[in-house]
Amino acid sequence: MKEVTFEESIFSSIVAKVTLIILAVLFFLVSIDLVITALSGSLNFINENLLSNALNPFVGLFLGLLVTAIIQSSSTTSTMVVALVASGTLSLEEAVPIIMGANVGTTLTSTIVALGFISNKRAFRRAVAVGTIHDFYNIILVLILFPLEHYYGFLSGVSFYFSELLYGSGISEALPHTDNVLGSGLTNQFVLWVNNSVLILVISFAFLFASIKLLSWIIKKTIIGESKNRLQSFVFDKPLKSFSWGVLLTAAVQSSSVTTSIIVPLAAADKIKLRNAFTFIIGANVGTTLTALIAAGFRSEAAATIAIAHLLFNLTGVVIFMSLPILRKLLVHFVKEFSYAVAKYRVIGLAYIIIMFFLLPFLLISLNRNVDRPVNKKHETTVSQRF
Q1: pLDDT of amino acid 279
Q2: How many angstroms separate the Cα of 242 from the Cα of each of 69, 219, 222, 250?
């Protein structure tokens, strides 16, 4: 029997890992194809039952927050939104607030991870600081960009401009669903076999969620592996380096929830400084937009536009906070004071999670349910009528 050399073993391991990643990516792309197929046959059901209130941008914002807080994956939410735009169910203006809300909703994971250190007051304080700085950073971005988008169409307008540069003029909101090499024949056969639009929709979203989680898990195991205890010396020694690694690691793992949650235990053990963890989180927010960009690239120019809007939302945060260190220092100081309060009165942490991520969205969605959407004539003619 031939003995396997060390080099051959390493090569086989690399091939196996690459194969797993490729299969996970293909599963993700086929899941996107199935979602588009399901949405194409379920537009009336979605419009009448799920998105009847999403015409109001405030409802869209809190819907994105609530859904992402529940499923704990902004990548899944943003990919669903891209699919909805590609199928013509959502307009660009309706989709942008949902993306903003998703950015806030995904921060819940790291905050919950911080609660795991509640028995150790000092570790709990440091963990809460890292966990909640992700929350407050995204909340500040929403407070800045939501009014600009609501009244002036800032994100949708700029993203449309860049989409035109990439694809040319004459962008349509939804392109016909055509066969491609990624499995449309398989998905079409599946649709014919199930023959129930609502069931197909549920299954397609379940596949999408599972594919993103699978891809995240495989890459986390194959790339990060057991090296997280060595990350603090290699990744977090300088703010700019932390930011760059935040982008790269999250783009690879495709889950800012995973990468930001990894640094919470490191912060709790006093292995990294809060200011460097913060710049890593800023980078992680940018890295997580890759999923929607990949999904959009296989669909329509309008879907690409919403994916670009997601990227621009996070790049705006980079420009604001990376170019102005004083703002980073102010937010870090505020979060430290907040973490001291939570460590002293620990019920504040639980109340914060329940109110911020669940009670407040439910309440505001209910309050805005019957509020007519304000009409901005200039915004309608420059954004909505483009498609």
Answers
A1: 92
A2: 26, 20, 21, 12
- CA–centroid distance for 261 within its chain: 14
Q: For the beta carbon of residue 311, count every other beta carbon within 10 angstroms.
A: 22
pLDDT at 94: 86
CA-to-CA distance for 227 and 235, rounded, in angstroms?
Answer: 11
Question: What is the C-alpha to C-alpha distance for residues 127 and 170, in angstroms, rounded to an integer?
Answer: 49
Q: Record the tokens describing residue 163, joined without a space.
A: 């989409």
314 vs 71, 153, 288, 307, CA distance in Å? 21, 16, 9, 11
- The answer to whether 264 and 270 have CB atoms below 8 angstroms apart is no
Model pTM? 0.71
* 289 vs 307: CA distance, rounded Å: 7
pLDDT digits (tens, 9 = 90+) for 3-51: 556 555 666 666 776 677 677 767 766 766 676 566 555 545 544 555 5
Q: Which letter, b or e, does each residue of 228-237 get, where b requires 16 or more Cβ atoms within 10 Å of its Cβ? A: eeebbeebbe
